[in-house]
Amino acid sequence: MTPAKYKNLRGAVESFTEGFTSVLWTIGDLAEFGIQKGISEFSIDFLDRTITPPPSGKSLEYFLDYRNLPEWFDSVGCSFSRIRKMEMQVCFDFKSREQSKYETSTEDNMRFIATTDIVDDRGKIYSCRHESFCFFFRRTAMSNANGPRSDV
């Protein structure tokens, strides 16, 4: 087996950030929680397995268990044992919130920025800043017709 290379961490941080934020329902759960509590910024520490401030319910575990990180890093040619810090900052732009253009939809969307920093065992920082949008459920009588969601 070829030894994992430091140079692969540049691509790994970009791939992880884009992959993690493309799981729209998890980012949407975090956005929905943020809207309910008036919180627009979250910090996710993948090594310490914490989200600050912590959302309630299953979303916390789902975020932290998104991937088996040692296996994922090995699969992209990096050694997880070389990583000393892995954090993501997620900032939602509440002012960009838009309702769906479809009358029957209960989803809204909103822009966000996610910045991931990985620090290796030499102290080198690999960063990725990713801007995108997320979908989340609007809290209305229609969207609550099946009862409240238990995972947010």
Low-confidence region ranges:
140-152
Rough outline: elongated
Radius of gyration: 17 Å
Q: Considering DSSP H and I runs of 4 or more, what fraction of the residues is helical?
A: 25-40%
Number of helices: 4
Strands, total number: 6
Walk me through this protein's architecture.
The chain has 152 residues and is an alpha+beta fold. It has one domain. It contains four helices and six strands. Strands 1, 2, 3, 4, 5 and 6 form a six-stranded antiparallel sheet that branches. A hairpin with a 4-residue loop joins β1 and β2. The protein is elongated and about 50 Å long. The C terminus is likely disordered.
Please outline the helices and strands:
Elements lengths: L7 H15 L1 H14 L3 E5 L4 E3 L5 H7 L4 H7 L7 E10 L5 E2 L7 E14 L4 E13 L15
Antiparallel strand pairs: 1-2, 1-3, 3-5, 4-5, 5-6
List keywords for this structure.
alpha+beta, 4 helices
Short description, anyone?
The protein is α+β, with helices and mostly antiparallel strands and 152 residues long.
